[in-house]
Amino acid sequence: MPSKLSEEISPFYVMEVLERAKEIEASGGSVIHFEVGMPDFSTPAVICEAAVRAIREGDTRYTHSLGILELREAISEDYENTYGVKVSPGNVIVTMGSSPALFLSMLALLDPGDEIIITDPHYACYPQLIKIAGGVPRTVRVYEEEGYQIDAGRLRKAITKRTKAVLINSPGNPTGTLLGPDVIRDVASLGVPVISDEIYHGLVYGGEAKTILEFTENAIAVNGFSKLYSMPGWRLGYLIVPEEFVRPLQKLQQNLFISPNPFVQRAGVAAIKHGKREALGMVGEFDRRRRAMLEGLRELGFVLGTEPLGAFYVFVNASGISPDSHALAFDILENAHVAVTPGIDFGQGGEGYLRFSYAASVSDIEEGMSRLGKYLDERKNKSR
Ligand SMILES: Cc1ncc(COP(=O)(O)O)c(C=O)c1O
Fold first, then answer.
1. pLDDT by residue (tens digit) across 52-62?
2. Whole-angstrom Cα distance, residue 131 to residue 245?
3. CATH of segment(s) 57-275
4. Interval 324-349: pLDDT, tens
5. Which of 90, 94, 111, 340 is the least crowded, having the fewest Cβ atoms under 10 Å away?
6. Where are the domains positioned within the chain?
Protein backbone atom coordinates (compact mmCIF):
# COMPACT_ATOMS: atom_id res chain seq x y z
CA MET A 1 0.00 0.00 0.00
CA PRO A 2 1.38 3.47 -0.81
CA SER A 3 2.39 5.51 2.24
CA LYS A 4 0.14 8.17 3.77
CA LEU A 5 2.70 10.79 2.75
CA SER A 6 2.73 9.73 -0.89
CA GLU A 7 -1.06 9.47 -0.98
CA GLU A 8 -1.60 12.87 0.60
CA ILE A 9 1.02 14.91 -1.23
CA SER A 10 -0.55 17.64 -3.40
CA PRO A 11 -0.20 17.29 -7.16
CA PHE A 12 1.60 19.97 -9.14
CA TYR A 13 -1.54 21.29 -10.94
CA VAL A 14 0.46 22.91 -13.70
CA MET A 15 1.48 19.43 -14.83
CA GLU A 16 -2.18 18.44 -14.97
CA VAL A 17 -2.94 21.48 -17.16
CA LEU A 18 -0.01 20.54 -19.39
CA GLU A 19 -1.15 16.91 -19.62
CA ARG A 20 -4.71 17.94 -20.60
CA ALA A 21 -3.25 20.42 -23.14
CA LYS A 22 -1.23 17.58 -24.68
CA GLU A 23 -4.41 15.47 -24.98
CA ILE A 24 -6.14 18.31 -26.83
CA GLU A 25 -3.13 18.57 -29.14
CA ALA A 26 -3.07 14.82 -29.70
CA SER A 27 -6.66 14.99 -30.91
CA GLY A 28 -5.80 17.72 -33.43
CA GLY A 29 -6.37 20.94 -31.42
CA SER A 30 -3.77 23.70 -31.23
CA VAL A 31 -2.97 24.99 -27.76
CA ILE A 32 -1.09 28.17 -26.82
CA HIS A 33 1.13 27.36 -23.85
CA PHE A 34 1.37 29.96 -21.12
CA GLU A 35 1.49 27.36 -18.34
CA VAL A 36 5.02 26.03 -18.66
CA GLY A 37 7.66 27.24 -16.25
CA MET A 38 10.70 26.62 -18.38
CA PRO A 39 12.54 28.49 -21.10
CA ASP A 40 11.58 27.43 -24.63
CA PHE A 41 15.02 28.22 -26.11
CA SER A 42 17.50 25.50 -27.06
CA THR A 43 20.46 25.16 -24.74
CA PRO A 44 23.32 27.22 -26.27
CA ALA A 45 25.54 25.13 -28.57
CA VAL A 46 28.73 25.90 -26.63
CA ILE A 47 27.18 24.18 -23.60
CA CYS A 48 25.93 21.15 -25.55
CA GLU A 49 29.35 20.73 -27.18
CA ALA A 50 31.09 20.66 -23.80
CA ALA A 51 28.82 17.81 -22.68
CA VAL A 52 29.32 15.84 -25.89
CA ARG A 53 33.09 16.31 -25.60
CA ALA A 54 33.01 15.09 -22.01
CA ILE A 55 31.05 11.96 -22.98
CA ARG A 56 33.45 11.25 -25.87
CA GLU A 57 36.35 11.59 -23.42
CA GLY A 58 34.71 8.93 -21.24
CA ASP A 59 33.62 11.31 -18.47
CA THR A 60 30.73 9.03 -17.50
CA ARG A 61 31.62 7.88 -13.99
CA TYR A 62 30.59 9.09 -10.57
CA THR A 63 32.35 12.30 -9.55
CA HIS A 64 33.26 13.62 -6.11
CA SER A 65 30.01 13.74 -4.11
CA LEU A 66 30.29 17.54 -3.74
CA GLY A 67 30.79 18.00 -7.49
CA ILE A 68 33.87 18.53 -9.67
CA LEU A 69 36.27 21.15 -8.38
CA GLU A 70 36.36 23.00 -11.73
CA LEU A 71 32.62 23.68 -11.51
CA ARG A 72 32.70 24.56 -7.83
CA GLU A 73 35.48 27.05 -8.57
CA ALA A 74 33.58 28.49 -11.55
CA ILE A 75 30.48 28.98 -9.36
CA SER A 76 32.45 30.71 -6.61
CA GLU A 77 34.10 33.04 -9.18
CA ASP A 78 30.71 33.72 -10.73
CA TYR A 79 29.24 34.79 -7.37
CA GLU A 80 32.27 37.01 -6.72
CA ASN A 81 32.11 38.61 -10.20
CA THR A 82 28.33 39.11 -10.14
CA TYR A 83 27.74 40.19 -6.56
CA GLY A 84 31.16 40.94 -5.11
CA VAL A 85 30.79 38.25 -2.43
CA LYS A 86 33.60 35.89 -1.50
CA VAL A 87 32.52 32.26 -1.73
CA SER A 88 35.00 29.47 -1.18
CA PRO A 89 34.64 26.56 -3.65
CA GLY A 90 34.68 24.41 -0.49
CA ASN A 91 31.25 25.80 0.42
CA VAL A 92 29.70 25.03 -2.97
CA ILE A 93 27.83 21.74 -3.38
CA VAL A 94 26.75 20.75 -6.88
CA THR A 95 23.36 19.02 -7.16
CA MET A 96 21.12 17.57 -9.85
CA GLY A 97 18.96 20.67 -10.17
CA SER A 98 17.89 23.29 -7.69
CA SER A 99 14.99 21.03 -6.61
CA PRO A 100 17.35 18.47 -4.99
CA ALA A 101 19.36 21.42 -3.64
CA LEU A 102 16.25 22.73 -1.89
CA PHE A 103 15.32 19.28 -0.61
CA LEU A 104 18.84 18.60 0.67
CA SER A 105 18.94 21.91 2.51
CA MET A 106 15.63 21.09 4.19
CA LEU A 107 16.86 17.65 5.20
CA ALA A 108 19.95 19.29 6.66
CA LEU A 109 17.93 21.85 8.64
CA LEU A 110 14.81 20.09 9.85
CA ASP A 111 14.09 17.71 12.69
CA PRO A 112 10.55 16.27 12.69
CA GLY A 113 8.00 19.03 13.38
CA ASP A 114 10.41 21.91 12.74
CA GLU A 115 9.11 24.77 10.67
CA ILE A 116 10.19 26.69 7.58
CA ILE A 117 8.46 29.96 6.75
CA ILE A 118 7.49 30.56 3.13
CA THR A 119 5.47 33.30 1.50
CA ASP A 120 1.91 32.79 0.26
CA PRO A 121 1.74 32.73 -2.74
CA HIS A 122 4.91 30.65 -3.16
CA TYR A 123 6.53 28.25 -5.63
CA ALA A 124 4.20 25.25 -5.68
CA CYS A 125 6.70 22.60 -4.56
CA TYR A 126 7.99 24.36 -1.40
CA PRO A 127 5.38 23.06 1.07
CA GLN A 128 5.67 19.56 -0.37
CA LEU A 129 9.47 19.52 -0.06
CA ILE A 130 9.24 20.74 3.53
CA LYS A 131 6.68 18.06 4.41
CA ILE A 132 8.68 15.27 2.75
CA ALA A 133 11.67 16.37 4.82
CA GLY A 134 9.53 15.96 7.97
CA GLY A 135 8.90 19.65 8.53
CA VAL A 136 5.92 21.97 8.71
CA PRO A 137 5.49 24.84 6.24
CA ARG A 138 4.32 28.11 7.79
CA THR A 139 3.12 30.85 5.48
CA VAL A 140 3.28 34.61 5.52
CA ARG A 141 0.95 36.40 3.10
CA VAL A 142 2.35 38.78 0.53
CA TYR A 143 -0.02 41.07 -1.33
CA GLU A 144 -0.22 42.43 -4.84
CA GLU A 145 -1.02 45.91 -3.41
CA GLU A 146 2.33 45.76 -1.61
CA GLY A 147 4.19 44.62 -4.74
CA TYR A 148 4.42 41.13 -3.18
CA GLN A 149 7.22 42.42 -0.94
CA ILE A 150 7.70 40.60 2.37
CA ASP A 151 6.59 42.59 5.40
CA ALA A 152 9.15 42.09 8.15
CA GLY A 153 6.57 42.69 10.91
CA ARG A 154 4.29 39.97 9.58
CA LEU A 155 7.27 37.67 9.12
CA ARG A 156 8.50 38.26 12.68
CA LYS A 157 5.08 37.25 14.02
CA ALA A 158 5.27 33.91 12.18
CA ILE A 159 8.56 32.94 13.85
CA THR A 160 8.25 30.32 16.57
CA LYS A 161 10.67 28.21 18.63
CA ARG A 162 10.42 25.59 15.87
CA THR A 163 11.39 27.95 13.02
CA LYS A 164 14.52 26.64 11.35
CA ALA A 165 14.60 28.92 8.31
CA VAL A 166 12.83 31.50 6.20
CA LEU A 167 12.70 30.59 2.52
CA ILE A 168 12.72 33.49 0.05
CA ASN A 169 12.63 33.48 -3.74
CA SER A 170 13.60 36.55 -5.75
CA PRO A 171 12.91 36.99 -8.63
CA GLY A 172 9.92 34.97 -7.60
CA ASN A 173 7.66 32.32 -9.01
CA PRO A 174 4.69 32.85 -9.52
CA THR A 175 4.69 36.65 -9.21
CA GLY A 176 7.86 37.67 -11.06
CA THR A 177 8.64 39.91 -8.09
CA LEU A 178 12.08 41.22 -7.34
CA LEU A 179 12.49 41.72 -3.59
CA GLY A 180 13.94 45.11 -2.70
CA PRO A 181 17.37 45.19 -1.02
CA ASP A 182 15.81 46.67 2.13
CA VAL A 183 13.35 43.78 2.31
CA ILE A 184 16.12 41.19 1.98
CA ARG A 185 18.15 43.07 4.60
CA ASP A 186 15.16 43.00 6.97
CA VAL A 187 14.69 39.26 6.44
CA ALA A 188 18.41 38.63 6.96
CA SER A 189 18.44 40.65 10.18
CA LEU A 190 15.81 38.51 11.94
CA GLY A 191 18.48 36.12 13.17
CA VAL A 192 16.82 33.11 11.51
CA PRO A 193 18.75 31.23 8.79
CA VAL A 194 17.57 32.16 5.32
CA ILE A 195 17.27 29.79 2.37
CA SER A 196 17.40 31.94 -0.74
CA ASP A 197 16.15 30.36 -3.95
CA GLU A 198 18.09 32.31 -6.59
CA ILE A 199 17.14 30.15 -9.58
CA TYR A 200 15.77 33.15 -11.53
CA HIS A 201 18.84 35.32 -11.01
CA GLY A 202 19.96 36.85 -14.28
CA LEU A 203 16.38 36.96 -15.58
CA VAL A 204 15.80 40.52 -14.45
CA TYR A 205 14.34 43.41 -16.50
CA GLY A 206 14.93 46.46 -14.31
CA GLY A 207 16.36 46.64 -10.81
CA GLU A 208 18.95 44.21 -9.56
CA ALA A 209 18.74 40.71 -8.07
CA LYS A 210 20.67 40.52 -4.81
CA THR A 211 22.09 37.34 -3.39
CA ILE A 212 21.33 36.69 0.26
CA LEU A 213 25.10 36.33 0.75
CA GLU A 214 25.44 40.11 0.37
CA PHE A 215 23.47 40.47 3.60
CA THR A 216 24.26 37.54 5.86
CA GLU A 217 26.43 34.45 6.19
CA ASN A 218 23.64 32.73 8.10
CA ALA A 219 22.15 31.57 4.83
CA ILE A 220 21.95 28.88 2.20
CA ALA A 221 21.88 30.11 -1.39
CA VAL A 222 20.24 27.79 -3.91
CA ASN A 223 20.76 28.26 -7.61
CA GLY A 224 20.96 26.32 -10.86
CA PHE A 225 21.28 26.29 -14.61
CA SER A 226 17.69 25.45 -15.68
CA LYS A 227 16.43 28.97 -16.28
CA LEU A 228 19.22 31.42 -17.15
CA TYR A 229 21.09 29.02 -19.44
CA SER A 230 17.96 27.28 -20.70
CA MET A 231 19.04 23.90 -19.33
CA PRO A 232 15.91 22.60 -17.51
CA GLY A 233 16.26 18.98 -18.61
CA TRP A 234 19.97 18.74 -17.81
CA ARG A 235 19.29 18.74 -14.08
CA LEU A 236 22.08 20.88 -12.67
CA GLY A 237 21.98 23.12 -9.64
CA TYR A 238 23.97 23.97 -6.54
CA LEU A 239 24.02 25.10 -2.95
CA ILE A 240 26.29 27.63 -1.27
CA VAL A 241 26.30 26.80 2.44
CA PRO A 242 27.98 27.76 5.73
CA GLU A 243 30.92 25.53 6.70
CA GLU A 244 28.98 23.59 9.36
CA PHE A 245 26.55 22.33 6.71
CA VAL A 246 29.11 21.03 4.19
CA ARG A 247 29.76 17.66 5.79
CA PRO A 248 26.11 16.90 6.74
CA LEU A 249 25.02 17.78 3.19
CA GLN A 250 27.81 15.73 1.71
CA LYS A 251 26.61 12.66 3.63
CA LEU A 252 23.01 13.26 2.53
CA GLN A 253 24.09 13.67 -1.09
CA GLN A 254 26.26 10.53 -0.98
CA ASN A 255 23.37 8.42 0.28
CA LEU A 256 20.62 9.93 -1.84
CA PHE A 257 22.33 10.70 -5.15
CA ILE A 258 25.99 9.52 -4.95
CA SER A 259 27.18 12.38 -7.16
CA PRO A 260 25.90 14.82 -9.74
CA ASN A 261 26.20 13.78 -13.40
CA PRO A 262 29.80 14.19 -14.70
CA PHE A 263 29.27 15.43 -18.25
CA VAL A 264 26.45 17.73 -17.16
CA GLN A 265 28.86 19.32 -14.69
CA ARG A 266 31.33 19.88 -17.54
CA ALA A 267 28.49 21.56 -19.46
CA GLY A 268 27.90 23.74 -16.38
CA VAL A 269 31.50 24.94 -16.47
CA ALA A 270 31.05 25.86 -20.15
CA ALA A 271 27.80 27.69 -19.33
CA ILE A 272 29.46 29.92 -16.75
CA LYS A 273 32.64 30.49 -18.76
CA HIS A 274 31.24 30.75 -22.31
CA GLY A 275 27.45 30.87 -22.14
CA LYS A 276 26.85 34.37 -20.74
CA ARG A 277 26.53 36.16 -24.09
CA GLU A 278 23.83 33.79 -25.32
CA ALA A 279 22.10 33.91 -21.94
CA LEU A 280 21.98 37.71 -22.22
CA GLY A 281 20.39 37.39 -25.66
CA MET A 282 17.67 35.18 -24.17
CA VAL A 283 17.09 37.69 -21.35
CA GLY A 284 16.59 40.44 -23.98
CA GLU A 285 14.04 38.28 -25.78
CA PHE A 286 12.23 37.47 -22.52
CA ASP A 287 11.92 41.20 -21.84
CA ARG A 288 10.37 41.78 -25.28
CA ARG A 289 7.87 39.01 -24.55
CA ARG A 290 7.19 40.37 -21.07
CA ARG A 291 6.22 43.72 -22.52
CA ALA A 292 4.05 42.07 -25.20
CA MET A 293 2.25 40.04 -22.55
CA LEU A 294 1.74 42.95 -20.17
CA GLU A 295 0.34 45.04 -23.00
CA GLY A 296 -1.95 42.21 -24.14
CA LEU A 297 -3.27 41.54 -20.65
CA ARG A 298 -3.93 45.23 -20.02
CA GLU A 299 -5.78 45.52 -23.33
CA LEU A 300 -8.02 42.66 -22.18
CA GLY A 301 -8.91 44.72 -19.12
CA PHE A 302 -6.74 42.98 -16.50
CA VAL A 303 -5.39 45.34 -13.88
CA LEU A 304 -1.85 44.71 -12.68
CA GLY A 305 -1.18 46.20 -9.27
CA THR A 306 2.56 45.74 -9.71
CA GLU A 307 4.82 45.13 -12.69
CA PRO A 308 6.83 41.87 -12.64
CA LEU A 309 10.53 42.62 -13.08
CA GLY A 310 12.00 39.13 -13.11
CA ALA A 311 11.65 35.43 -14.01
CA PHE A 312 9.11 34.90 -16.85
CA TYR A 313 5.72 35.10 -15.16
CA VAL A 314 2.82 37.50 -14.83
CA PHE A 315 0.44 36.79 -11.96
CA VAL A 316 -2.96 38.16 -12.83
CA ASN A 317 -5.98 38.80 -10.64
CA ALA A 318 -8.84 37.05 -12.44
CA SER A 319 -11.21 36.91 -9.46
CA GLY A 320 -13.61 39.25 -11.28
CA ILE A 321 -14.10 36.49 -13.86
CA SER A 322 -14.18 33.58 -11.41
CA PRO A 323 -13.02 33.15 -7.81
CA ASP A 324 -12.15 29.49 -8.59
CA SER A 325 -8.80 29.60 -10.41
CA HIS A 326 -8.68 25.84 -11.02
CA ALA A 327 -12.11 25.77 -12.70
CA LEU A 328 -11.28 28.93 -14.65
CA ALA A 329 -7.92 27.66 -15.93
CA PHE A 330 -9.48 24.42 -17.17
CA ASP A 331 -12.45 26.28 -18.70
CA ILE A 332 -10.04 28.57 -20.60
CA LEU A 333 -8.07 25.53 -21.74
CA GLU A 334 -11.14 23.61 -22.97
CA ASN A 335 -12.86 26.55 -24.64
CA ALA A 336 -10.06 28.88 -25.79
CA HIS A 337 -7.22 26.35 -26.08
CA VAL A 338 -4.97 28.60 -24.01
CA ALA A 339 -3.12 26.88 -21.16
CA VAL A 340 -2.53 28.92 -17.99
CA THR A 341 -1.72 27.85 -14.44
CA PRO A 342 -4.35 28.25 -11.70
CA GLY A 343 -3.20 30.53 -8.91
CA ILE A 344 -4.30 28.02 -6.27
CA ASP A 345 -1.26 25.93 -7.30
CA PHE A 346 0.81 28.52 -5.43
CA GLY A 347 -1.12 28.54 -2.15
CA GLN A 348 -4.37 29.96 -0.81
CA GLY A 349 -2.98 33.47 -1.37
CA GLY A 350 -2.93 32.74 -5.10
CA GLU A 351 -6.60 31.78 -5.34
CA GLY A 352 -8.46 33.96 -7.83
CA TYR A 353 -5.28 34.51 -9.83
CA LEU A 354 -3.86 32.97 -13.00
CA ARG A 355 -0.15 32.64 -13.79
CA PHE A 356 0.86 33.47 -17.34
CA SER A 357 4.34 32.34 -18.38
CA TYR A 358 5.93 34.31 -21.20
CA ALA A 359 8.32 31.51 -22.09
CA ALA A 360 6.45 31.64 -25.40
CA SER A 361 7.13 33.49 -28.67
CA VAL A 362 5.70 36.98 -29.24
CA SER A 363 3.46 35.58 -32.00
CA ASP A 364 2.11 32.94 -29.57
CA ILE A 365 1.53 35.68 -27.00
CA GLU A 366 -0.46 37.70 -29.54
CA GLU A 367 -2.47 34.67 -30.63
CA GLY A 368 -3.08 33.64 -27.00
CA MET A 369 -4.33 37.13 -26.11
CA SER A 370 -6.64 37.17 -29.09
CA ARG A 371 -8.14 33.77 -28.13
CA LEU A 372 -8.50 34.93 -24.55
CA GLY A 373 -10.26 38.12 -25.70
CA LYS A 374 -12.84 36.07 -27.62
CA TYR A 375 -13.28 33.71 -24.66
CA LEU A 376 -13.89 36.62 -22.27
CA ASP A 377 -16.40 38.23 -24.65
CA GLU A 378 -18.31 34.96 -25.01
CA ARG A 379 -18.30 34.43 -21.26
CA LYS A 380 -19.65 37.94 -20.74
CA ASN A 381 -22.39 37.41 -23.36
CA LYS A 382 -23.42 34.12 -21.76
CA SER A 383 -23.77 35.69 -18.32
CA ARG A 384 -26.02 38.48 -19.66
C1 LIG B 1 11.20 28.99 -7.75
C2 LIG B 1 11.72 27.73 -8.33
N3 LIG B 1 12.66 27.05 -7.63
C4 LIG B 1 13.15 25.89 -8.09
C5 LIG B 1 12.73 25.35 -9.29
C6 LIG B 1 13.30 24.03 -9.75
O7 LIG B 1 14.22 24.18 -10.77
P8 LIG B 1 15.28 23.05 -11.16
O9 LIG B 1 15.07 21.89 -10.28
O10 LIG B 1 15.02 22.77 -12.60
O11 LIG B 1 16.62 23.69 -10.94
C12 LIG B 1 11.77 26.03 -10.04
C13 LIG B 1 11.28 25.46 -11.31
O14 LIG B 1 10.35 25.92 -11.93
C15 LIG B 1 11.26 27.25 -9.55
O16 LIG B 1 10.34 27.95 -10.22
1. 999 999 999 99
2. 20
3. 3.40.640.10
4. 999 999 999 999 999 999 999 999 99
5. 111
6. 4-42+277-383, 57-275
